[in-house]
Amino acid sequence: MTGTPADGAAPLSARAPVFTADFRSTTQWVAGRSWAYPNGGPTNTGDNKLDYLVADPSYSRTGTFRATRRPDGKWNAGLLTTEGSEEAFMVRTGDVLESRVRLPSELGAWPAIWTWRDGGNEIDVFEYHPDNPDLLELSNHVKGGSRYHRDSAITPGGWIDLKVEFGTRSVVWWVNGTRVFADRRGVGRNWRAYLIVNLSVCAGRYHPAPDPGVSQMSYAVEYLRVHRP
User: Fold this and answer.
1) Are 146 and 139 in contact (CB under 8 A)?
2) How many CB atoms lie within 10 A of CB 146?
3) Other C-beta atoms within 10 Å of 134: how many?
4) Is beta strand 90-92 parallel, antiparallel or unpaired with respect to 192-201?
5) Integer Cα distance of 58 and 62 in angstroms
6) Which of 220, 76, 111, 93 is closest to 165 using CA atoms?
7) Could you give the residue ranges of the DSSP H alpha helices within the chain?
């Protein structure tokens, strides 16, 4: 399947699941560092983030990704990536990723599921900011293309189902079972990238920073699976 906008994804029942996330697994996931951050972290202030990545398993390995305020004004934050892990799993062209997440409620929260390799190869399965309570950001940074998807079913603290097909000629997103965006750009034939799941914290340039009285925030990932033709 080439992933053209006229096509839907092949039924998942016809695809072999090649990856089922076990966030507790130290062979699947590395916690608290990512080469998507300068020098692998722990901070990325150039992207207007207050994150200070930590490997503490309570911040990510339960499937609930947490952030807590630090005395220095930054936030300890949870991130998991397959990059650098023993299994080193990568999604590739034609794969379909599906996940179910509970969105955060606190201003400043910036949850995301995305891909990364060698300084790029980034597809954002989703990004969310509670100051835009009904909006998901869906982006292809490989070949360009993005959509601000609004839906009354998207709410702070609410659950959403996500599915993305990384097609050769189009990346296609589904939200709560409805196809909402086909970018008509795709990722090309030989694309591959590692997975990242994390909770960032906004520093205030593009979205509001956390309210002064807020000291913690979280979002949950119930499951994450990747299917391959």
Assistant:
1) yes
2) 15
3) 13
4) antiparallel
5) 7
6) 93
7) none
Please name the helix (run of DSSP H) or strand (run of DSSP E) that holds residue 100, with its range, or none.
strand 96-102
Quick: pLDDT tens for 89-122.
999 999 999 999 999 999 999 999 999 999 999 9
Contact predicate 89/80, CB 8 Å: no
**Are the C-beta atoms of 134 and 151 separated by less than 8 Å?**
yes
Task: Give the model's confidence band at 11: pLDDT under 50 very low, under 70 low, under 90 confident, else very high.
Answer: low
At which residue do the structure tokens 């992207």 appear? 47
Token pair for 43: 């901070």
Tokens of 224: 């994450």
Q: What would the two tokens of residue 166 be?
A: 């990384």
Q: Which residues, 6 or more positions from 96, have their beta carbon under 8 angstroms from its beta carbon?
A: 9, 10, 12, 15, 163, 164, 165, 166, 226, 227, 228
**209 three-class SS:** coil
pTM metric for this prediction: 0.93
Q: Tokens for 61?
A: 């390995």
The encoded tokens of residue 63 equal 């499937």
Burial 15-49 (b: 16+ CB within 10 A, else e): beeebebebeeeebbbbbbbbbbeeebbbbeebbb
pLDDT for the residue 14: 55
